[in-house]
Amino acid sequence: MTDTYERERDREYGREHEQEHEYGPLLADVAGSGRRLTRDELLRLRDSGERAAGDGEALRALIGRHLEAVRTAWPERSLSRRTTLDLLAVVEQSIDALSGGFERAQRLAVRQEEAERREFIDDLLHGRSDLGRIAARAERFGLHLSHAHAVAVACGPRPYGEADLAPQQVERAMIGRFGDRSILVTTKDGRMVCVAPGDQRDVLAYFAKQAFAATGGGQAAVGRSQPGAGGVVHSYEEALRALELADRLELDVPVLYAADLLVYPVLTRDRQAMEDLVVSVLGPLRAARGGAEPLLDTLTAFFDSGCVTTQTAQRLSLSVRAVTYRLDRIHRLTGADLADPTSRYTLQTAVIGARLLGWPAKQI
């Protein structure tokens, strides 16, 4: 500890003496000639500013040290107003060069940090790097991947990048609410992403709420909590699949939970069997006047309404009598009896399959 302090003190002392030694002849020359700083002198000052930033020195301290060196090197003889103005102009030039070099170093450091953060996020969400290496790098970004994590993904009416207003609003709201609680908020492929400890469902729920507000009505999906670095990948992929399902099934709920949608991947795991079910059960609806789509929409609304005819009519903006007629027409075409639990389950499964497969718009 003492050695570190002494090295830092000696380095600071060396800087001050170097500046005093340089500014003495410089200010004397300016006082005599009225010249401005040369290109090489300005470059040296910018380099000095960059080194100070790299050493972790604050800009305020750098400028203060510089002005102290100028004060020490200021000519002692009486100066005319013109000479004083020339000296002040050179001091202004030197401060501008120092701060310019300092800010350039900071911008480069920020860009480097952003590039490393983006690389880490890509590796984390896609698992393209060694999981042990990802876990080691994660701590730098506030994540402890020895614990389980869950991922929420939010989409809006357009793609978003980290520089856009909506993701910045969401991140500020998350930091303001939860502070540093091992949370990572970012963007990926035009969507907003939040990685949080798996036991903190309130964090992901709040993220979904803020994303909904920031995008003017977007939709979010939350993957299940999974352990380890590989678990983040699985949870992220679950959230993406949930959003895809919501799009295909036209689910308009603001927040989807992958755990509640597990039945859909099961239904589509055997695609050929699902196609056979859709064609055999719903195929006869093509014979209806106007095609199968209006009757399929009626069945969709009927099942989404809990098989209540009045609510189905409200969803479709139809009369109860019109809905009853359509349901009767479906019964006559398919032979399925909606009053029978087995028949109703078969018909509902076929309707889900049709929505997942894009039938009847797509031929299967």
TrEMBL record:
Residues 295-351 form the PucR C-terminal helix-turn-helix domain. InterPro entries: CdaR-like_regulators, CdaR_GGDEF, PucR_C-HTH_dom, PucR_C-HTH_sf. It holds the Pfam family GGDEF_2. Residues 1-29 are annotated as: Disordered. Residues 1-23 have a biased composition (Basic and acidic residues). Residues 127-245 form the CdaR GGDEF-like domain. Belongs to the CdaR family. This is Regulator of polyketide synthase expression.
